[in-house]
Sequence to fold (316 residues):
Amino acid sequence: MRRAIVATVWNEEARLPEFFASLERQTVRADVIVVTDGGSKDRTVELLRDFAARTSLPFRWAAVPGNRSRGRNEAIRLADADVIAVTDVSLLEPTWFERIVAPIERGDADVVAGWYELLVGTPRERAIGLLTQWSQDQVRPERFLASSRSIAFTRQIWTQVGGYPEAYAGNEDTIFDLAVERLRPRKAFVPEAVVRWRPAGSIRQVYRQYRKYAVGDGQAGIFLFSETRYAAHYAVYSGAVLLLLAGIFWWPLWVLLLVGISLYLAFRIRKVIWAGLWPLVPYALLVVVVWDLSRMVGYAVGRIDRLRKGREHFGF
Fold:
C-alpha cells in the first residue's frame, strides 16, 4: 500500500522552513511527498527546489498555476499512491502522518479526519483563532467535515468524487467533503492526528479570508447546512434590523434589541473570556462583527455569481 503526503502552496516562504522540518520529524515515513506551487511570487519556489535537493525524504514538487483544488488534484496524480494524506503549510506533529493513515491501513476507514490546533505568536492572533476555529467539544465526529489541512482518504474515494472541485477557489474542501459524504464511506475521526496552523493575523485578514470562503459556499448554494450557519447569521442580523426599526414606534423593543445583542455577542466571544483574555474583549467583539459581515457579504456575492453563471458551471 503506497502512502503519500500532498500539499499545495502559494507565497509561503515564511512558513515553509517549519513545514519542511515537521515533515522530516514524522515518526513514519511517507512513500512519497508531493508539494505543488500555485504561482508564487516570493522565494517559495527557490525553497522548494533547495529542500528537494538536500532532503533524504522522497520529496518532489511541481509548478501548477491555479487554485488550491487544481494544485491538490495534480499533487495526488503525481503521488500515484493508494492512501493520500492532505495538509497545507502548517506544523505537523511528529505522529500526524502515522496516526492519520492508520485507520485506512487497518482497513477500518476510507476517510480519516484529523485535527488542528492554533499556532499563534500574539494574544490578538490567539483571540482570532479562538473565535474562528471550532473546538473539539463542538465537534460531532459523525458529522464533522475535515479541513484539508488534516485529512486522509483512499485514492479510490478521490477518484469516485472526481477530485477536488476546480471551479471553487476558497471552500473547495467543504465541497469535496460533501461529495464524499454522498458515497457513505467508512469514516474515522482521529483527534490525535494534529496539525498546528496559523490563523489570520488581523481583522482585515479575517474579512478577506472568510469572505472568500463564503463566496464559494454561495456559488455552491450551501445555505441551510448547519455547519455553515448562514441561515442563522441572516436571521440574527435581519431580526436586529427589524427590532431597530420597530423601536421607532414602540421604544421598549430597543431594550429587547440591546439585551439580544449583548447575549449574542457574549455567546460568540465566550472562548476569549474563558481564556482570560479580558483586555482583548473589545477587539474580539469587532472581530465577531467583521467575521459575520464577511460571511454574509461573501455568500450574497457567491449566490449572485451562481445565478449569473448557472448551477452547471459549478457542478454542485
